[in-house]
Amino acid sequence: MTPSVPTPLAARTPPLAEPSAWHEISLTVNGRPVTAQVESRLLLSDFLRDRLGLTGTHVGCEHGVCGACTVLVDDEPVRTCLILAVQCRGTEIRTVEGLAPGDAPLTSVQQAFHECHGMQCGFCTPGFVLTTTALTEQSDRPDGEQVADALSGHLCRCTGYRNIRRAVCQALGERFGE
Ligand code: FES
Ligand code: FES
């Protein structure tokens, strides 16, 4: 069977006031090709939210402290408030919208957060879920220190972290057959 070609994702382009300061970038977002004109200074967070309408990427502190804006860039967790869109030319980006699109079943990580009540307001959740997804995609099981290190870059104002830790443990346990 011939694999279906993903439909390009349309990016909104504001009026080009200073054309010399704009760059064309092509990248893949949630499996779909995107080509867009971006200003040099445009943050990836603003590109995803304002140009592509992917508002599941939440912006909290805007300076790399809270982790809410984390997405996966070439499978690595990256804070989108600290990287420019133009730096992501040619990369593959996954946002929370791409984990279980449409009617697709939740991923095991999303299911674990759901079952363990690993969220309250949900503001921090996309970042936690994407970082946990990256942990489950490693070939070797991360040890406790590596898990703590990965999660230490995420702040949650609601849950007290206990249920988030349970969700992460459940997801890792399922992935590594414990
Ligand atoms: S908004 Fe990016 S780390 Fe807080
Ligand atoms: S669930 Fe509200 S900030 Fe984490």
Automatic annotation (TrEMBL):
<keyword id="KW-0479">Metal-binding</keyword>
<dbReference type="Pfam" id="PF00111">
    <property type="entry name" value="Fer2"/>
</dbReference>
<dbReference type="InterPro" id="IPR012675">
    <property type="entry name" value="Beta-grasp_dom_sf"/>
</dbReference>
<protein>
    <submittedName>
        <fullName>(2Fe-2S)-binding protein</fullName>
    </submittedName>
</protein>
<keyword id="KW-0001">2Fe-2S</keyword>
<dbReference type="InterPro" id="IPR006058">
    <property type="entry name" value="2Fe2S_fd_BS"/>
</dbReference>
<keyword id="KW-0411">Iron-sulfur</keyword>
<dbReference type="InterPro" id="IPR036010">
    <property type="entry name" value="2Fe-2S_ferredoxin-like_sf"/>
</dbReference>
<keyword id="KW-0408">Iron</keyword>
<dbReference type="InterPro" id="IPR051452">
    <property type="entry name" value="Diverse_Oxidoreductases"/>
</dbReference>
<dbReference type="InterPro" id="IPR036884">
    <property type="entry name" value="2Fe-2S-bd_dom_sf"/>
</dbReference>
<dbReference type="InterPro" id="IPR001041">
    <property type="entry name" value="2Fe-2S_ferredoxin-type"/>
</dbReference>
<dbReference type="InterPro" id="IPR002888">
    <property type="entry name" value="2Fe-2S-bd"/>
</dbReference>
<dbReference type="Pfam" id="PF01799">
    <property type="entry name" value="Fer2_2"/>
</dbReference>
<feature type="domain" description="2Fe-2S ferredoxin-type">
    <location>
        <begin position="23"/>
        <end position="99"/>
    </location>
</feature>
<keyword id="KW-0560">Oxidoreductase</keyword>
